[in-house]
Write a structure and sequence with these properties.
Layout: H1 9-17, H2 23-41, E1 44-47, H3 49-64, E2 76-80, H4 107-114, E3 118-123, H5 157-165, E4 170-174, H6 181-187, E5 190-193, E6 214-218, H7 221-231, E7 261-265, H8 275-290, E8 294-298, H9 306-321, H10 339-350, H11 353-366, H12 372-393, E9 398-402, H13 418-422, H14 429-434, E10 438-445, E11 451-457, H15 463-477, H16 488-491
Parallel strand pairs: 2-3, 2-4, 7-8, 7-9
Antiparallel strand pairs: 1-3, 4-6, 5-6, 5-10, 9-11, 10-11
Helix pairs in contact: 2-3, 2-5, 9-11, 9-12
């Protein structure tokens, strides 16, 4: 057998049930891959080696006793470090939470444990999930396994890099404006944002509560479906979670696209899109047509204003959510002669520049005299975008576009230009504003050998159709390339 760290979740599960592999073997292989690659990547903030090995041994014992928790039983998984883990430090990559150990698990963590998964560690992110490159972490930059001079995307760059490098077989991130799909595109893996409310946000450290959603990273569409099914469903602890049955996502994977109508979003596929990215998307769309799909162009004019609306709504919500980090109850506390001075000093020392920028933007947008002109207007644009997408889905089954306007860009290239950095999310933001699901599937490499992602979008609770088309895209593209730091000749010590 090849290195177990290179297996898909499906292949690893089959090998364990056939007696060819144990969870402990698999977990140790992932941890060994992390040992070799982490000096290059910095995908993780915490590696829980002892806890992971203990969980893997327990998974093996359970399987030997005939107790099989399902397709994630014994599979090593990584978690973005903005999801609370009882007994394990959770920082959201911010100094203001340095050393904080939650007294409870996020619902997603408990559901993964119930599914038999093995958590190997907590991954790096842009501080409080605010960024598109994982350069805003208080604990250092994560690098892309395909080219360590480039970014892995963000904010869930650590999770994407871990899956691409083989230090986890799957991972979870959060997506507020593209923070799963964009790094998945840049790191050549599958990344999926579910319908808002399909996955509980309980225990997720909030950035923008009406936009945040937890979702999976994986090496295949089927693996992503397995991960999503394990954590989806109503949660009494989250008032925004959706009641009802979880869709049978894997049941649609083999149905193909014959007879489906696919719409190419004009506004997300032309202006500002790198020519090589556009060419890969067009080629994939043509092959979907050859596979029996009807392909049409769809114009959604309000998408032009999505980026502007998002960067008013998200900072406004972050301004409110981050008000709780004040040095009084938990986390960093700076010195001050009065309570007010202590709070001001704590927030100035504890938050990084990008977080401070967004708090200030949001506070300004919500301030008296500007609320209607900025925040109120942004919400009206959001409503227009929702209506346009809903109208489009009355005519097509899914919409498609690039995931990211470019492939991975050099570290440091955009840090001094926030507008250029924000533009990295232009293709993904609409799905957060509408609350609909979206998925990124790798479909090729550019001339520099960097991955290109193809985005499929569907109406709310349309995950079955979304995954059906995503699997067809995956089959058409036949993408099997591996990141440089996941190949044996590079990772040898």
């Amino acid at each position: 057998m090849s290195d177990p760290a290179d297996l898909t979740i499906k292949a690893a599960g089959d090998a364990m049930r056939a007696g060819e592999l144990t969870s402990l073997d698999l977990t140790e292989a992932a941890l060994e891959r992390a040992r070799i690659t982490e000096s290059h990547l910095h995908a993780f903030l915490t590696l829980d080696q002892a806890g992971a090995k203990e969980a893997a041994a327990a998974a093996d014992a359970a399987l030997a006793a005939g107790e099989d928790a399902g397709p994630l039983h014994g599979i090593p998984i990584a978690l973005k470090d903005n999801m609370c883990t009882k007994g394990i430090e959770t920082t959201a990559s911010s100094q203001i939470l340095s050393g904080w150990i939650p007294p409870y698990n996020a619902t997603v963590v408990d559901r993964l444990s119930a599914a038999g998964a093995v958590v190997v560690g907590k991954t790096n992110l842009d501080e409080f999930a605010m960024g598109s490159s994982t350069e805003n972490s208080a604990y250092g930059t994560t690098r892309n396994p395909w080219d360590t001079d480039t970014v892995p995307g963000g904010s869930s760059g650590g999770s994407a890099a871990a899956v691409a490098a083989g230090s986890a077989l799957g991972a979870f991130g959060s997506d507020t404006g593209g923070s799963i799909r964009q790094p998945a595109s840049l790191c050549g893996v599958v990344g999926m944002k579910p319908t808002y409310g399909l996955v509980s946000r309980y225990g997720l450290i909030a950035f923008a509560s009406s936009l945040d959603q937890i979702g999976p990273f994986a090496r295949s569409v089927e693996d992503a479906a397995v991960l999503l099914e394990a954590v989806a469903g109503f949660d009494i602890h989250d008032a925004t979670s959706i009641r009802g049955d979880v869709p049978n996502i894997r049941g649609s994977l083999s149905e193909g696209v014959a007879g489906l109508k696919v719409g190419i979003v004009t506004e997300l596929s032309t202006t500002g899109i790198d020519p090589e990215v556009r060419e890969a998307v067009v080629q994939t769309v043509n092959e979907l047509s050859d596979a029996g799909a009807e392909v049409v162009d769809v114009s959604l004019p309000s998408c032009e204003y999505g980026l502007s609306a998002y960067y008013l709504i998200a900072p406004a919500e972050c301004s409110a959510n981050l008000a709780r980090f004040d040095g009084v109850r938990y986390g960093l506390r700076a010195a001050g002669s009065t309570t007010e001075e202590m709070m001001a000093a704590t927030r100035a020392e504890g938050f990084g520049p990008e977080v401070i920028r967004r708090i200030l933007l949001g506070t300004y947008a919500l301030s008296a005299g500007y609320y209607d002109a900025f925040y109120g207007q942004a919400q009206r644009v959001r409503t227009l975008i929702r209506r346009e997408f809903a109208a489009a889905y009355e005519d097509v089954d899914v919409l498609v576009a690039p995931t990211s306007p470019t492939t991975a860009f050099p570290i440091g290239e955009r840090t001094a230009d926030p507008i250029a950095m924000y533009y990295a999310d232009v293709c993904t933001i609409p799905m957060n504003l509408t609350g609909d699901p979206g998925i990124s599937v790798p479909v090729g490499l550019d001339s520099k050998g960097l991955p290109i992602g193809f985005q499929v979008m569907a109406p709310a609770l349309g995950e079955e159709r979304l995954f059906q088309v995503a699997k067809a895209v995956e089959d058409i593209a036949g993408f099997t390339a591996r990141a440089a730091l996941a190949t044996s000749e590079v990772v040898q010590p």
